[in-house]
Amino acid sequence: MLKRIAATLSGATLMLAGSVVYCQDFPNRPLRIVTDAAGSGNDFAARLIAQGLTASLGHRVIVENRPSGVIPREIVAKAPPDGYTMLLAASAMWIGPLLQKTSYDPITDFSPITLTSGTPNILVVHPSLPVKSVKELIALAKARPGELNYSSGSLGSTPHLAAELFKSMTGVNIVRISYSSASVRMTSLVSGEVQLEFATGGSVAQYLKMGKLRALAVTSAQPSPLIPGVPTIAASGVPGYESVGMTGMLAPAKTPGTIISRLSHEIVRVVNQPDVKQKFADSGVEAIGNSPEEFAAKMKLEIARWSKIFKDAGIRAE
Predict the structure, then answer these.
(1) What is 121-243's CATH topology?
(2) For the whole model, what pTM was predicted?
(3) Is the pLDDT of residue 5 over 50?
(4) How does pLDDT run across 295-318, given as a tens digit for each residue?
(5) What does the alpha-carbon distance between residue 207 and residue 211 come to, in Å, rounded to a whole number?
(6) Helix or strand holding residue 287 (H, E)
(7) Domain 2-119+245-311 adopts which CATH fold?
(8) Are 204 and 186 in contact (CB under 8 A)?
């Protein structure tokens, strides 16, 4: 009997860590995190996590940069499901397929590991707009339907998603002006060519300090420590509103659960280290770190929610 048990466990030795069962012989060689282009926000986060994982796993974790977009996702979707290849991707990874055809399925082709961080947007307006609260903005937009413009990046970007949710929940008619360049988009906003944007914190911080833009609210469910003193949209007349850009770590589908558990445990530990949390905050994001099951449930919830919003608004790929 003992020989039979030993034979079963050989080559795949397990050990208990708390209530989680881990593969003891994983990892036994370097790992890689595939993410967007060098210098991107995801690249910055991937390198922070890789540094922490290298120390805790005892093997080097390499960041592999690929052109931003679907390429990193396609690489990881087709990688061996052995835990040695991971993907760090923003929420566009699971929202994007609602707006364009992709060669991967975010649910069936990946195994969620953990959400690493979240980034609320800030509803900002040009100072020439006579509003100082979300309620005043809604009233003005309803009094002038189709006259107020909001700047946005690509379909499915966090500024676009936050604006569409706002339109859906308030019934206002504000018009999307799409820009291919973030710098041109910000120039148009600061000059008053467009009146508002659901912007990322890093893109508008300097303009808020200079008084060239006015912050009305944040898009997270709770006030954000990244933007102290700014209320939430939910608490400013739109109950239940929440739109947060998320970034998560994933592995190829069919990666063994024991390996997913090990990676999740280690990555959550890394992102919640005080120095890492501070570096995240300095770059405009909040550390999260949750279980694979929580990440998977959140992804499915987000896909269902945005699918309905896009359908109701008649939004299709450009």
Answers:
(1) D-Maltodextrin-Binding Protein; domain 2 (3.40.190)
(2) 0.86
(3) no
(4) 999 999 999 999 999 998 888 765
(5) 6
(6) strand 286-287
(7) D-Maltodextrin-Binding Protein; domain 2 (3.40.190)
(8) yes
